[in-house]
Amino acid sequence: MTEGPLFAYRARVEAGDLRGDPAQELAAEKLQSLANALREYRPRQPGSWKERFGLARRAEEPPAGLYIFGDVGRGKSMLMDLFFAAAPVEKKRRVHFHEFMLEIHARLHALRTANGRRADDILPAIARDIAAEAWLLCFDELHVVNIADAMLLGRLFETLFAEGVIVVATSNWPPDDLYKGGLQRELFLPFIALVKARLDVLHLEGRMDYRMARLMSMQVYHTPLGPAADRVLDHAFRDLTDNAPAAPRALEVMGRKLPISAAAKGVARFTFAELCERPLGAADFVAISAAFHTIVLAGIPRLVPERRDTTKRFATLVDVLYERKIKLVCSAAAAPHAIHPEGEHAFEFRRTASRLMEMQSVEFLQQGGAD
User: Fold this and answer.
1) DSSP 9-56
2) What CA–CA distance (Å, rounded) separates 65 from 137?
3) What's the N-to-C CA distance of the chain in angstroms?
4) How high is the pLDDT of residue 3?
5) Do 69 and 366 contact (CB within 8 A), yes or no?
6) DSSP helix/strand/coil, 172
7) pLDDT tens digits, residue range 250-275?
8) Residue (of 263, 239, 259, 242) closest to 251 by Cα position
9) All domains of the chain in start order, with CATH
10) What are phi and psi of 39, to 5 degrees?
């Protein structure tokens, strides 16, 4: 056999695209074993004519899925992508966990509006619909931060597993640390127990942060603006996301949706106008920094005194990214100290310019941020 995530991983190491890593190879071996098991596995098909007449084959015990956790930049998403591409399953889906939960809430809202039923009554039906659409689910960046998600997950996944769905997930946290310190966490504990019972848990150990190594090797502040800077940002985005296709995202901020036009593997792309010429504030920037470890920002202009709101918004953005150790790759019309050199707020902007300079330093890039 020469197909599967382990062979794809070794091929990339041989080609020089990846540096050999024993912990990564172990994870690839686990994923290869699961891919092999999936060749023979098929979930039962409730409601089929064979089942109605008692002719359906006995339901197989599904193979255990996999929960891979570890520090930022360890290659968790890359390994899952290799598995997903090679998995011999027609009905499969890879999705960022945050996006998946937004979808669950949208389905719940639609069904509640239609018939007024409670979430506990509706969730099993939603889970069965999801299982019919895809019986291999790959979740990137599984994390639980709010009580609304925490209260749904146990019932939802109980039905998914009962339907024979196989789950592979990546996370920065071990299962026991999910929703740690959250409100009414005792009601969330059955979900943790379910994850540990149905998924093999693998700690992707190791000290090499591959994302950080890429950042350390690239220039992160590019000036002047123009086609050359645009090309450099395109290349940086591809490099930091392993050429993953960019897709739109939506973050929920204080009960409203914050659209993001392009994101992949913890990296989001924005134009200056998208972040600083719209009525956004600190809460929006905090949500962005919680969802992404790196921001690629194009088109920072020279700021004139008349653009007071824009200047203040940009300063707030830089403050949030700086405080949360989020990496910034950007293009600008001038060096940081020359972006807003005169006017009523030029003195205040000196701190922003200083932070933009520091965010280019090796010391800043070595600090951990969100994943």
Assistant:
1) HHHHHHTTSS---HHHHHHHHHHHHHHHHHTT-----TT-HHHHTT-S
2) 10
3) 34
4) 86
5) no
6) coil
7) 888 877 889 999 998 889 999 999 99
8) 259
9) 5-203 (3.40.50.300), 210-365 (3.40.50)
10) -65, -30
Quote the tokens at residue 64.
């255990």
Question: Beta strands 327-332 and 294-300: pairing type?
Answer: parallel
Do 73 and 172 touch, CB atoms closer than 8 A?
Answer: no
Name the amino acid, one letter, at 13. Answer: V
Q: What confidence category does residue 244 fall into, taking pLDDT thresholds of 50, 70 and 90?
A: confident
Question: Structure pTM?
Answer: 0.62
Residues in the chain: 371
Nearest to 305 by CA among 270, 274, 348: 348
How much is the pLDDT for 1? 55
CA atoms within 13 A on the CB side of 334: 11
Measure the CA dihedral 266/270/276/278, to 10°.
-100
Give, for 93, the enclosing helix (H) or strand (E). Answer: strand 92-96
**Nearest-angstrom CA–CA distance, 79 and 87:** 12
DSSP state, residue 48 = -
Q: Which two tokens stand for residue 155?
A: 């019932």
Mean pLDDT value of segment 176-201: 92
Say how many C-beta atoms besides its own lie within 10 A of residue 47's C-beta. Answer: 9
Sequence-distant (≥ 6) Cβ neighbours of residue 132 within 8 angstroms: none
Average pLDDT over residues 286-299: 92
Asked if residue 28 lies in contact with residue 79, where contact means CB atoms within 8 angstroms, the answer is yes
pLDDT digits (tens, 9 = 90+) for 55-101: 555 456 899 999 999 876 688 888 999 999 999 999 999 988 888 98
Q: What is d(CA 88, CA 301) in angstroms, rounded to the nearest whole number?
A: 49
Q: Regarding beta strands 294-300 and 267-271, do their DSSP bridges make them parallel or antiparallel, or are they unpaired?
A: parallel
Among candidates 293, 287, 347, which has minimal Cα distance to 315?
347
Distance CA 97, CA 170 (A): 9
Beta carbons of 274 and 299 less than 8 angstroms apart: no
